[in-house]
Amino acid sequence: MSITNTSATIIQPLPAASSNWLRDLVGIAIILAAAIVGYFLFPNNLALLTRMIAIMLFVLSLDLVTGYCGVATLGHAALFGAGAYAAGIAAAHFGVTEPITMIAIGAVGGAVAGLVSGVVILRGHGLAQLVLSIAIIHLFHEAANKASNYTGGSDGLAGITPDPILGLFEFDLWGRTAYVFGIVLLIVIFVLLRILVRSPFGLLCRGIRQDPVRVSAMGASVKRTLIKMYVISGVVAGIGGAFNAVSTQVVGLDSLSFTNSAEALVMLVLGGVGTLFGALIGTIVFIGVEDFVSAANPFHWLTIVGALLIAVVLFAPKGLYGTAAALVERYRKGGK
Amino acid sequence: MTALFQVDRLKKSFGGLDVTRDVSLSLQKGDRVALIGPNGAGKTTFVNLVTGHLRPNSGKVLMDGEDISTFNPMLRVRAGLVRSFQVTRLFADMTPEQHVALAILQREGKSGRVAGTFQAMPDVMRETYAILETLNLVGLARTPVSEIAYGQQRLLEIALAMALRPKVLLLDEPAAGVPHSDTFLIENALAQLPDDLAVLMIEHDMDLVFRFARRVIVLAAGEIIFDGSPREVTEDARVREAYLGSYGHASSAA
Amino acid sequence: MQTFFSIGVDALAYGMILFVISIGLSVTMGLMRVVNLAHGAFAMIGGYIASYAARDLGLAYGLAVILAVAGTIIIAIPLERFLYRRIYGAPELTQVLMTIGITFCVIGIANYVFGPTLKTIPLPPDLQGPVDLGFRTIAAHKLFAIFCGVAVALGLWYLIERTSFGVKLRASVDNTAMAAALGVRTKIVYAASFALAVGLAAFGGVIGAELLPVEPYYALRYMVTFLVVVSVGGAGSIPGALIACLLLGAIDTTGRYLVPEYGEFFFYLAVIAIVWVFPRGLMGRAK
């Protein structure tokens, strides 16, 4: 007997495809609205908002491997820093100052770092995986520190002066161009990632997070899939890093630090692991609080990050967005 | 003529203890074989050896005459050797629709696509729902697996195996954990398996074994002690000995 | 030859310090399956207490050590009771987040209370000078560290292999549910092992202060070092941890002597290489 032609009449109507696009549009509208509100609320603090955008890209990238694939890593800054240094070195030493080219170079740098990190980190499981991820960020950090001819070592890499975007929009003193550029980048990447996470590949990654044994029993290669996701994640993080280099015109050694990796994880968990919106919200809240607290008393910042982490683990394991989404869901079900 | 699937003198020992001793068997297209044996006979080890989760000390596994002994579990699946799990292994947050679609996408080599959705692929959707329909799971197609009953999860395991269109299917206790009153659901599902598929079922439930299998293999202490028709198996002296005469009990309690 | 000998002694001393600090982590990870990133923070707390007692209060070294161990355990008990117990058996990511949160808090508080500078623990006169071995001289504190490492290894071996607590501990590591069914009060075994682990960490933090200087970022700086000991040695294995510590001590010390300008580069490279070759640990049943 053949299963394929038993009955073709039972195919359900497919509301999914069109509602996906609707939700994407709503997402873009929300990001745009938030961007405009931010622009008018903090006209003197656009640099902070611009940094937020760079970090959002970084946290989105972490969400791809941690949230969607279930790989716990404390070394993700390697991807972000590689993108930042790739773009920065291209500009400062090789005269590549066209911003979009710089972003592309950052994406490539991030992808290469993603490939290397992925291959190394996925060699182990559990504790070994964690150790490898910490070792790799330290290794990148030491390497960048040592190669001070190119990276400026602990002084940081300066002398990055990007051209006007498309030859039209010059990077101004108030950071307006950088901000708008960032918002455009963020929206483009957000939409691409939405497409990615609901694609067959995205589905496969979700499967791996829940049961890798079952996925390999389907004949899929867990490792190759994860490494592919690592490379994609590297592209996104690299773009974030490159954008940070373009907008701040410096690259510091701290972009390749363990702390940077850990903070990205905190932001992701704070917002909600495994949702793109969670990554965005976590970043906004974290950097907002950081700005506020470290202005008041920089000594307490690390303590507060720690306390925040403990609180999230104990009281809101799904993160802010996840918890809110669960509440809405419950309300809807209750209302029926 | 070469067999579709052949296990050739498989041996495995753990620290001096022989768990699998010279096990050989072969399956042809359309075979319905049950592998039974008392507890500790080495059935689970056998499954792990055949699927590539354990490496044998010696012996070969062949598909269509090709030696797949060096293949890892994933490559064996791609060669057409698919297994189900004794304890359900599914993706808790995903729906049956997504499970089956993912298996089909994987089989078709489309699971690496980074754009588009399976809902927008008419042939994938058609096949997905055909399989779900066969197993009476259409009503639950969009319910997360964590919210559906265990018996139906077992059916979904079989659905996944069907979606992969294997040549040889290894069913590891398909009725394990299912209430006796619901085994008929599993049995109906098994009756829907394609005719040319070779099935090797490991099972404790003797009623199911006798209704399903046209050939029975008995494994005891790592050795095949019987390979023949279901009718003869109860008559066989060695089988009776292996089960210490407790077979009559086993058939009712299972 | 002189260099070779110096490297050997330093490596041995460093390895033994690592062992004293990490063995507790190894035991708790084998037992409770908690990825405890905050373990180094307890060693650091020990160092701070000892420094405060010996330098600021002028107490004797031995007393400072005892105070450090006791004080760290007292600080750790409520943490175990209210935070760690919530994450036993939780997914790895949850454990990582919780324990890294604890680490950050400890660093922040240490930075606030003691300031960002290095803290020394004055050694007693007996441990300050060199010791003449006949053919070579060694710094006494290094010899002391090696002695402590050996003593801890032997003591733990005795505790685990020869006492009734050890039997319960091993049973709980092998199969917690079965041990509980046999009447072992696993919660008490957990708490006692946690206290032991923390106490050893504090002890190691104090006696190792000459080699691993006490400062607020201590807990982060050596985090991977302690974790890699467990990862390479295998959770719960004393011989595994010992071998891993000596190996890492040798690599780190050799790197410092021969290519100091590369900092920790080769150390981390070696860590990756070792874990790459032994992803499941040298001899443990690390999962």
From TrEMBL, chain A:
Keyword Membrane assigned: yes
Organism: Phyllobacterium brassicacearum
Protein's name in the database: Branched-chain amino acid ABC transporter permease
InterPro entries for the chain: ABC_transp_permease, LivM-like
Lineage, highest ranks first: Bacteria, Pseudomonadati, Pseudomonadota, Alphaproteobacteria, Hyphomicrobiales
Keyword Membrane recorded: yes
Top-level taxon of origin: Bacteria
Transmembrane segments: 21-42, 48-65, 77-96, 102-122, 127-144, 178-197, 230-252, 264-287, 299-317
PANTHER family, sorted: ABC TRANSPORTER ATP-BINDING PROTEIN, HIGH-AFFINITY BRANCHED-CHAIN AMINO ACID TRANSPORT SYSTEM PERMEASE
Automatic annotation (TrEMBL), chain B:
GO cellular component, one term: plasma membrane
GO MF assignments: ATP binding; ATP hydrolysis activity
Keyword field: ATP-binding, Nucleotide-binding, Transport
Positions of the ABC transporter domain: 5-246
Keyword DNA-binding included in the entry's annotation: no
InterPro entries named in the record: AAA+_ATPase, ABC_AA/LPS_Transport, ABC_transporter-like_ATP-bd, ABC_transporter-like_CS, BCA_ABC_TP_C, P-loop_NTPase
Protein's UniProt keywords contain DNA-binding: no
Family that this chain belongs to: Belongs to the ABC transporter superfamily.
Name used for this protein in its record: Branched-chain amino acid ABC transporter ATP-binding protein
Organism: Phyllobacterium brassicacearum
Organismal lineage: Bacteria, Pseudomonadati, Pseudomonadota, Alphaproteobacteria, Hyphomicrobiales
TrEMBL record, chain C:
Main localization, broad class: membrane
UniProt-annotated location(s): Cell membrane
Membrane topology summary: Multi-pass membrane protein
GO BP of this protein: amino acid transport
Lineage top rank: taxon: Bacteria
Keyword Transport annotated: yes
The keyword DNA damage appears for this protein: no
GO annotation, cellular component aspect: plasma membrane
Transmembrane portions of the chain: 6-27, 34-54, 60-84, 96-118, 138-160, 188-212, 224-250, 262-279
One term of GO molecular function: transmembrane transporter activity
Cross-referenced Pfam families: BPD_transp_2 (PF02653)
CDD domains: TM_PBP1_LivH_like
Keywords: Amino-acid transport, Cell membrane, Membrane, Transmembrane, Transmembrane helix, Transport
Family: Belongs to the binding-protein-dependent transport system permease family. LivHM subfamily.
Protein name stated in the entry: Branched-chain amino acid ABC transporter permease
Lineage: Bacteria, Pseudomonadati, Pseudomonadota, Alphaproteobacteria, Hyphomicrobiales
